[in-house]
Amino acid sequence: MAETSHLSSMAMLFISFFVVLMGNAEGETRHYTFNIRYHNVTRLCHTRTILSVNRRYPGPPLVAREGDRVIVKVVNHVANNVSIHWHGIRQLTTGWSDGPSYVTQCPIQTNQSYIYNFTITGQRGTLLWHAHISWLRATIHGPIIILPKLNQSYPFQKPHKEVTIILGEWFNEDPEAIISQALKTGGGPNVSDAYTINGLPGLLYNCSSKDTYKLKVKPGKTYLLRLINAALNDELFFTIANHTLTVVEGDAIYTKPFDTDKLLITPGQTTNVLLKTKPEYPNATFLIAARPYSTGQGTFDNSTTMGVLEYEHPFKKPSKNPTLIQPNLPQINDTQFVSNFTMKFRSLANDEFPANVPKTVDKRFFFTVGLGTSPCPKNTTCQGPTNSTKFAASVNNVSFTLPSVAILQAYYFGQSNGVYTTDFPVEPMVPFNYTGIAPNNTNVMNGTRTVVLPFNTSVELVMQDTSILGAESHPLHLHGFNFFVVGQGFGNFDPVKDPAKFNLVDPMERNTAGVPAGGWIAIRFLADNPGVWFMHCHLDVHTSWGLKMAWLVLDGLEPNQKLQPPPSDLPQC
Description:
573 residues; 3 domains; 38% strand
């Protein structure tokens, strides 16, 4: 009997040990609390009350490993409704944690909380989290850093140090007041007052010499820079004077490494680069700079944020009059540089990190994306393109209207009536010369229209910029999926000739990609994630004007192919 008892306790010990091993293999559970609070911040000699997470601007990093479960309790202590989006996290079957207000959840109201609960599956690298309601993400944002699984390494040289660099925009005025006023008048919103590097405007701005980001490095070392564009409305060029950067990752997907001295990052995109410092102490200081890439006809913040790259002296002596090396950036509207740069991104496409691009296509879609107009309310004048119109934006001429309840809730509980429809047009209802002379009627239609996809549908989507109110670059972000950029070009997409040039071998996999100004982009993805998934321009002014839509992916047959039930603390509208 004693022997049996001894054997059973040994068996229990072995099972416990096995469970611990399995638990480690499957990842840890990481807990975070995000308190949304008011927070006074001074920039450009101007103090403003902002909204932030844990009174930090930019917000705190969310750090986890591939395979970890992440639980974030978000507590709202402010008057605004709020929700948080984990930008680029796949959210496999956990759409309730995706975050866009009125799409996957009602926002978290004052003095309420909500627990976001998701597992990071098959992803590692740099992403970002940000508020996903109105323009609150201007100050509510921060990095997501996903480390490889334990005992797994990077597919590139191990860096001496890792540094996160978040590019942002600073407004002296409350961004909520800015967009509220713009939507009222129908005009373009006021632009930001500065760009920032890790929340600091830098040398060129008024009152900002002390508010300048400094990156201190040692000679002969390799640094991994995790670059994030958290700006509201601007794609940004980035450079470090007289240094070459090696791109190794985009949107948390490893790339075939390539060298560049300057790069472009759209809002919502992330880029990891290796910075190899000079072998000897250079007795020079190198400027870090970011400024906008702008192709539209509207006004924009035409300024430059600057930080400083400083080398540590080998004997810790202060430098004597170091030379200040100036940066070199592309022209504001250099579409050719942007096209050439984005074409350099290629997936590793090897055994360990395959590029599983769909080779066959079940459903094809052709979406026009661009600006348009809406008529002014009767007996009023507006500040849009004419005094009788307001600015608007659309996908296939449908300007998306957010409902007053969450689409995912309405879908799950079978209450879609009056909330959304499933008749989003698969192609433009009235074809025209998209990049030529604009049609006479530029008015958009309004609606909450979705596309329904059966589970595991392979999708090819061509997004075509239009020249209505001027050709403009549009960084499109798809929630819930990564997609493969299989082709891009200028002018109108040619459905006969262009597909022959698609890259189906090693296309870049992303969650956000720019539709070129006066051009098109072709993407493919597998609809293997049930739920309602938002797709929108990541220039928030265009999202506010209606350049957005939603995909509704049905459940699959297997239990792990079905949307999980909603959590008990899901916010109510």
